[in-house]
């Protein structure tokens, strides 16, 4: 629920209400607006006699949060969240593009791609060190060796880095190397992993599950937010439908729907949605036109030799060309790249 404090509520009254709520077993999230302060109170409503709160000095009224997700909802936080990774701001005016290969394969190759995507205008470098492969016989990633290569590429290019973590046992190690932790589609409802990742306080890139509804996805975000981490970036990456012409079906409607339901930024992964490099450019343009805050795009210097997801990876020159075209779309919708 939301405790709305009246316009003239004093700091002391706000603190008193918070303390009372904490005593009743709620976690509190005060939001100091220009005119009024509201306090988000998350916990078991059954423990509450609402009059105990409404009678307190400075309280105007109590408003229930109707959605099952609370901290992720726009009912509680109206202002859009901007996730800041130093100077890179996701959810603001700039469309942030993340690019790089599906998997980190070796240092030379990765660095070469990193330099090229940086020159093209990407702000964050992607690369998998722990890969969630459908087959146990496929390349599983370089693990910590891959993280070291990523960190070296960050040093050379100045790009921020993001990689996926698959297992709670690796969260600490991954967090010690990267700027953003990715939770992949297959793990969207791995609740222990969400909590463990959230407890690092690092920004979390949360992919939508293979067949997850928007509500299930926002509930997954709620796990991270309720672990004390307010920096969640949602990522639409296509969902499983009856259609087989593309690897997944991109859900463009998710962009405006999520914007309405949640204050969290949302980016789009056209590569895993399409499964084919040819569709990456049109889907990227569509995502920006629909209001996405960024994109995550697979780029490989030689897709025909890629150890993972070559068919959907753009060559660096195609990525460079796409970035130029995306800049026009971004301007058309009042954004920057
Ligand atoms: C990835 O980004 O490399 C990946 C495996 O994505 P997803 O979890 O969306 O399939
Ligand atoms: Mn991939």
Would you write up a description of this structure?
- This protein has 2 domains: 2-63, Phospho-2-dehydro-3-deoxyheptonate aldolase, domain 1 (Alpha-Beta Plaits, 2-Layer Sandwich); 83-332, TIM Barrel, CATH 3.20.20.70.
- The protein has an 8-stranded parallel β-barrel, surrounded by 6 helices. A 4-stranded antiparallel β-sheet has the order 2-3-1-4. A two-stranded antiparallel sheet has the order 5-6.
- The chain contains 11 helices and 14 strands.
- It has 337 residues and is an alpha/beta fold.
- Helices cover 34% and strands 18% of the residues.
- The mean pLDDT is 97.
- Residues 102, 272, 298, 308-309 line the site of manganese (II) ion.
Beta-sheet strand percentage?
A: 15-25%
Using only C-alpha atoms, the radius of gyration works out to 21 Å
CATH topology of the largest domain: TIM Barrel
How are the strands ordered across the major sheet? 7-8-9-10-11-12-13-14
Number of domains: 2
**Named CATH architecture of the largest domain:** Alpha-Beta Barrel
Structural class: alpha/beta
| Tertiary shape | elongated
Question: What is the makeup of the main sheet?
Answer: 8 strands, parallel, barrel
* Euclidean distance between termini CA atoms: 38 Å
Percent of residues in helices comes to 25-40%
